[in-house]
Design brief:
The complex is a heterodimer of chains A (514) and B (469). Chain A has 514 residues and is α/β, with parallel strands linked by helices. In chain A, 51% of the residues lie in helices and 11% in strands. In chain B, the strands form three sheets. A six-stranded mixed sheet of chain B has the order 9-10-11-7-12-13, sandwiched between helices. In chain B, helix 2 (31-39) packs across helix 11. The chains are: A alpha/beta (514), B alpha/beta (469). Chains A and B meet through helix 6, strand 1, strand 2, helix 9 and helix 10 of A and helix 8, strand 1, strand 2, strand 3 and helix 10 of B.
């Protein structure tokens, strides 16, 4: 662990690289802003910034995956959460102590802060013994930190001071607007409240619950409380001299070096928090196999993470694969069939896998692209068809200028403003260029012909079932099965003999079990 | 203290179920007419009556507990009404005591002291009323209530409470022992006995004294807050007591409201010369379903006159099939069966000359809708959605009343679907009573019954007669 000039210790960060300051253009198209929003709500905007971009270095990706995996352990995640909560609380409280002029209050708050923070750091350090894979460097750093005198001395002083303050007792009399404080009279057990409770006991029966514990009030003392505290300090001069001394010695206490660790942990924990309700809803999450050499693509039960976040997990996953020699995946079929959603899922998968994050799929094998380039219809360009086509072509030219053989391209419904034959005429050369460069591309289109344009093109068709087009299938054509309308409806509502019997039987089983 | 007039060992929850299935039941059985008759213009009674009838009991002992209490109420209508009015007025008076703007102990204590003062007078009156009437009541429920009132609300105790209320005014100031909480906040106060008018020497001698400046509102708020913190424990005891007494009186009001409602209903039906009987409880395994002179009280109340009753001999029957002419009394019969079942299992007297049935574990209705309120689904889809919601709730021993279900699709299709549904429900122990125009369905149920089936057919005069097998 590197020693700092001032004698403190630094703790290395977890994620290997700082979050980038700029955001690539594809993120809005892929609706990663929704994911980032959920993440910022769970983890804070500084941590969510990691979602902007990735080191595509496979070593860093593996290291980050190892960190995520380690934090999947609920016990360790809980310890990490407590550490993050303590770090954030320490920052806030320290700031407040600095603004508090009243030493009897400020000294106590500082002691509480030091003791709480030390306990959280120690607890986290203990949770990292033995160090889980992926967190060995962190475990070393923290083990050294908690043994250093710069850590132990303030901690011990704070604990001793708090123990003495907990013993302080005094008697107080409030008469009208006058408050008197005197030393506590020894030997008496004041229990008037108990007597009052006993008199009323008959009304509330045998089990009067203790009054609920009041939530910890974090506010500063008001004028009367502060005045009473000053009187108590007069009655107990020695303890309060020590409070003042502790305040003078340790007010510069800073949880230095742990800020970055806190941010990195918040990113990982927040990301897992965003996934948690989706996992509870039955959606899979996996750590993708990543490569910078193997160009086959494979994703099973892939889904749009942004949509899943918005719809609490109610999304339909799909399988998408592109074997050797298959570079362009053309998705066609009826509207509202989930094609655009699949395209976003495809783009998100590459972006998130590059970040070293767990991804929204059951199993995935991903080539780490140098960039993810997207083309989606822009809402502001709906004005006039001619200018719209020009604008689209300009954007596509810019996209092609950036695309290399290592890029991933997502195209969603281009050339919608022209006729089918014009769109096809414009699309073919674009397809040829993409194939020439060897770009991996997912292309959503209303042009069925594109799916048959070249042997390297994989065709996927969004297929729907039932009246409300709920489910999406891959390259499956629905065949009318000759059922009557009424029977189909009964099927849908679970009211055929078989389905209804099953429902009733399951309920009986549940009731018998529970 | 709990009144326990509706259940021997549990408080009754008056929460009315709000869900589409229950809403259909209420509409289909015309239950609001029943509740209005019970209420007699009193909104509280109406709310209580609806809650109780919509939560039918299945345990015969629990039903008998209410039946016994109801017998007492029917014998002592004036006493039950007087108790109800007393409880209702006590709760109303409590509600009139203003609530402080802040909820800290100080304001809460002041209010609790006033409320308890009010209640002490009301509880004295309640004890007197109970003492005057207790010998006329015989049911376990009322006997227990009166015994509890006599034991707990004696005058000596109420006087002790009133003395404590005076002490809690703290005229000589508030003394306490305290500690320091987080942030060194003075806290954890344990109250001393209220000091006398002149403080002890140790207080007078002390130099450590603070006088609130009173220069601005904040000072006064802080002082009131500190006073509230000192009072903590005593204020909690007093407010908990005020709440407990209020809860007791409110529960007493609500539970009595049910019996007052039953008395109101009995008087309304008696005015039309219509009978009510105490149903005979039968165990579930008997699958009993028999009645004589069973009529729909809601129809009688709506028409304001006597209506025709029907006999039903359905012991051991899993499915009752009702067919016949339009406007022949088929729907009325289904409603009468549904309402009587709910009333019997609420512990009420039922609209029949005699009634003996095994309890139904839930009553459900699937009635034909004249109009489809939703434009999003077709009529058949709407019917199936309602049936599916019922299927989520029915269980072994439920009673399902089906009135012209699946009339919105073709005869053959509808019959096939209906046979499927009825077979599945029957196989899982759901009893059904089916009114249908579907001749294919009726023929199938008659010729190849899959459960013991009782077939009824309309005859002139709104009478339903069994068809020979």
């Amino acid at each position: 662990m590197p020693a700092r000039d001032d004698g403190g210790w630094a703790v290395r960060g977890l994620l290997g690289a700082e979050p980038p300051s700029a955001e690539p253009g594809c993120l809005t198209d892929l609706r990663c802003d929704v994911i980032a929003g959920a993440l910022a709500a769970a983890a804070g905007a500084d941590a969510a910034a990691y979602l902007r971009g990735a080191p595509r270095d496979p070593v860093l990706v593996a290291a980050r995956q190892a960190v995520f995996r380690a934090l999947e352990d609920p016990a360790l995640a809980a310890a990490a959460r407590r550490f993050c909560a303590a770090a954030s609380s320490a920052r806030r409280r320290l700031d407040r102590v600095a603004r508090t002029g009243h030493v009897p209050q400020a000294g106590r708050r500082l002691a509480e802060l030091v003791a709480d923070h030390a306990a959280a750091v120690e607890e986290f350090a203990a949770a990292l013994r033995p160090a889980p894979p992926g967190l060995t460097a962190l475990a070393e750093d923290l083990a050294e930190l908690v043994a250093a005198p710069s850590f132990t001395v303030p901690r011990d002083e704070a604990r001793a001071l708090l123990a003495r303050l907990a013993e302080v007792r005094y008697d107080v009399l409030l008469r009208g607007d006058e408050i008197t404080v005197v030393p506590c009279e020894p030997g008496q057990v004041p229990a008037f409240a108990d007597r009052a409770r006993a008199v009323f006991a008959r009304f509330h029966g045998d089990g009067l619950a203790d009054p609920p514990a009041r939530p910890a009030d974090d506010s500063s003392l008001d004028v009367v409380e502060a005045a009473v505290l000053d009187l108590v300090a007069e009655v107990h001069p020695s303890v309060f001299a020590d409070v003042a001394a502790f305040h003078a010695r340790h007010r510069a206490f800073l949880p230095e070096g742990l800020a970055r660790l806190d941010r990195d942990l918040r990113f990982c924990l927040g990301y897992l928090d965003v996934l948690a309700p989706l996992r509870d809803a039955g959606l899979p999450v996996c750590y993708p196999d990543v490569s910078v050499t193997d160009r086959t693509f494979e994703a099973h039960d892939l889904y749009d993470l942004a949509l899943a976040v918005e719809r609490s997990g109610r999304v339909v996953p799909n399988d998408v694969t592109a074997g050797p020699g298959e570079r362009v995946i053309v998705v066609s079929g009826p509207n509202q069939g989930g094609k655009t959603t699949l395209s976003r899922a495809f783009g998100q998968l590459h972006h998130l896998a590059g970040l070293g994050c767990p991804v929204p799929a059951r199993r995935a094998r991903v080539f780490l692209p140098d960039r993810v380039l997207t083309h989606y219809e822009r809402a502001e360009s709906l004005a006039n068809p001619a200018s719209r086509l020009q604008e689209e072509q300009a954007r596509l030219r810019a996209l092609l200028a950036e695309a290399t053989g290592d890029s991933v391209v997502v195209l969603n419904e281009i050339f919608m403003s022209t006729t089918s034959s014009d769109a096809l005429a414009l699309s073919r050369p674009l397809l040829d260029t993409l194939l020439d460069r060897g770009v991996l591309c997912l292309w959503v289109t209303f042009l069925d012909e594109l799916s048959r344009a070249h042997p390297s093109v994989v065709s996927m068709v969004a297929e729907t079932e039932g009246e409300d087009a709920r489910r999406t299938y891959r390259i499956v054509r629905g065949v009318a099965d000759g059922q009557s309308h009424a029977r189909t409806l009964a099927e849908r509502y679970g009211l055929t003999y078989e389905k209804l019997s099953l429902r009733l039987q399951e309920r009986r089983n549940e009731e018998a079990a529970g | 203290m709990r009144p326990r007039l509706l259940a021997e060992d549990a408080d009754f929850s008056f929460a009315t179920p709000h869900d589409p299935v229950t809403a259909d039941l209420i509409t289909d059985l015309e239950l609001p007419i029943l509740w209005e008759a019970m209420a007699g213009g009193d909104g509280r009674i109406r709310a209580v009556s609806s809650a109780v009838t919509l939560r039918p009991l299945t345990d015969p002992a629990a039903i008998a507990y209410r039946q016994d209490a109801l017998a007492d109420a029917l014998h002592n209508p004036a006493a039950v009404r007087a108790l109800y009015v007393l409880a209702r007025e006590a709760v109303a008076e409590e509600e009139k005591v203003p609530r402080g703007v802040n909820s800290r102990s100080d304001g809460r204590l002041r209010r609790a002291l006033r409320v308890l003062d009010v209640f002490c007078a009301r509880l004295r009156a309640l004890a007197a009323l109970a003492a005057a009437h207790r010998t006329a009541f015989a049911s376990p429920a009322f006997t227990r209530l009166f015994r509890m009132i006599a034991a707990n609300l004696d005058d000596a105790y109420l006087r002790e409470v009133e003395r404590m209320l005076v002490l809690l005014e703290f005229d000589g100031g508030i003394a306490a022992t305290g500690g320091l909480g987080p942030g060194n906040r003075p806290t954890g106060f344990a109250l001393h006995e209220p000091p006398g008018a002149r403080p002890e020497r140790r207080w007078r001698r002390a130099g450590t004294r603070h006088r609130a400046s009173g220069e601005n509102d904040e000072d006064w708020r802080a002082l009131a807050g500190f006073r509230a913190a000192l009072l903590g424990g005593a204020a909690d005891a007093a407010t908990a007591s005020a709440d407990a007494v209020r809860d007791f009186l409110a529960a007493l009001r609500d539970e009595l409201a049910f019996y007052v409602g039953c008395v109101n209903l009995a008087e309304a039906l008696a005015a039309h010369g219509l009978p009510l009987c105490r149903p005979e409880p039968r165990p579930p395994e008997d699958r009993a379903l028999s009645a004589r002179g069973l009529y729909d009280p809601c129809l009688a109340l709506r028409l304001g006159g006597p209506v025709v009753g029907n006999d039903l001999a359905g012991d051991g029957v899993g499915l009752v099939l009702v067919t016949g002419a339009n406007a022949g009394g088929k729907s009325t019969f289904l409603r009468a069966l549904g309402v009587a079942t709910l009333m019997a299992q609420a512990g009420m007297a039922v609209p029949a000359v005699s009634f003996a049935a095994s309890p139904a574990d839930g009553v459900f209705t699937h009635f034909r809708r004249e109009e489809d309120g939703t434009l999003t689904r077709g009529r058949l889809a709407d019917e199936l959605a309602r049936m599916s919601a019922i299927a989520d709730r029915v269980r072994l021993g439920s009673l399902l009343l089906s009135n012209e279900s699946l009339a919105s699709t073709g005869e053959r299709e509808a019959s096939a679907l209906a046979v499927d549904l009825l077979r599945a429900f029957t196989a899982h122990g759901v009893r059904t009573a089916v009114v249908t125009h579907l001749t294919t369905l009726a023929t199938a149920l008659r010729t190849t019954p899959f459960t013991p089936t009782l077939c009824l057919r309309t005859s002139p005069g709104y009478r339903l007669l069994p068809e020979p097998a």
